[in-house]
Amino acid sequence: MFDTLELICMIWWYMMLFHSLHADIHCMGPEAQESPITNVKMDWSKMELSWESSKNFSKYKCTIRNRDMEGTPPEVNSTKCRFPLELYMPLHEGVFLIIEVPNTNISKHCTFSPGGINGSAIENFSCVIYNVSLMNCTWQAGRDAPEDTQYFLYWQNSRYDDAMECELYITDENGRNTGCRFQNVRIDVNKAYFLVNGSSKDSLIQFYDEYIRLYKIEILTPPLNVTANCTTDSVGCIITWQPPLTSHVENVKCFQYEIHIQTKDEPKEEEKDPPVRVRSNRYEFQNYNEKKKYILKMRARGRSCLISSNWGEWTEPIEFGQGKDYFIFVVLFLIALGTISVTLLQYCLFKRYCSFKSIFPPIPQPRDKFNISTDENSQTEYASPQNKQLYPGSNCG
């Protein structure tokens, strides 16, 4: 039940948004007879359907529907019926209105059709919320829209908020608005309403509208404070974390988490250990091997409450585990390599600049008295040719 102020705000908002929409209502009755129901009108600001009747019927029944939903209020005893304002029914694809007289075959069928050039409304409208409170909405110009068409976005976060136009448009190379950036967005329980109007100098442009539950388009931030506590005397690692940040939900039981762990030095083992999904904020990694190092990353999604069921962003990779201790082997290898290098260097230097005889001269030996004659004769024979050459005329007897 809305109080007076809320109802006034809602009616004012509807009037502001819908007064400029170009649309027509076309009605027809049964072909066999002329319907007494005429002059059908729809006040979108109040969601009120009215008509005139040439006969005084005590009861009427009204229905509004599109291809996705239908709204039928209780029977009324006047020529007006008001549909609930909570009926989230977009209008850009057209709406069917039916007025019936109970227990008779008297009825009136009407169609609400947007006006303007066919194909001039925007296409591929989508919005996404990220980093808790930022939102981007984008669209494409209608395929048959005139070149001078410009688009304007209006939106209302909930029924209780004021409608507003986009403050920061995203434009293309031709200066045409093709999107909008929002800041400080609050996710509400109710649906948000988006309306994109178009304008052109020479033509009417069809509008586009849509209701969106903002929590469904939110990309969740990564889980917070992810830690892995591993000890050598245990058979596993305890991984803990906190839920991702949201602007509207604080219940930790509303999330599901996907944990991805792979061995750092053996990436092929990734296929052997598929991601694990848990609902709590704690996970025990049983396959922990203290001689290996692991890489961990996580993401979250909603499994209940008003949270998106799509997976959010991954955390940054986190390494844990001791891994193989290569330090001792590296030190021993360097020592051995250094020893070999120094030895080879010394050997090359000695071979290049030194002689073993100069370093180790021969030790003098004592003369052998018993073989002295032999030595003297050898010396005499060695010297005699020279004497003969120097003194050729001498004769030694």
UniProtKB/TrEMBL annotation:
Residues 1-23 form the signal peptide. It is found in: Membrane. One of its GO terms (molecular function) is cytokine receptor activity. It comes from the Eukaryota. Residues 222-323 form the Fibronectin type-III domain. The chain crosses the membrane at residues 326-350. The keyword Glycoprotein applies. Keywords: Glycoprotein, Membrane, Receptor, Signal, Transmembrane, Transmembrane helix. Residues 377-389 have a biased composition (Polar residues). This is Fibronectin type-III domain-containing protein. It comes from Falco tinnunculus (Common kestrel).
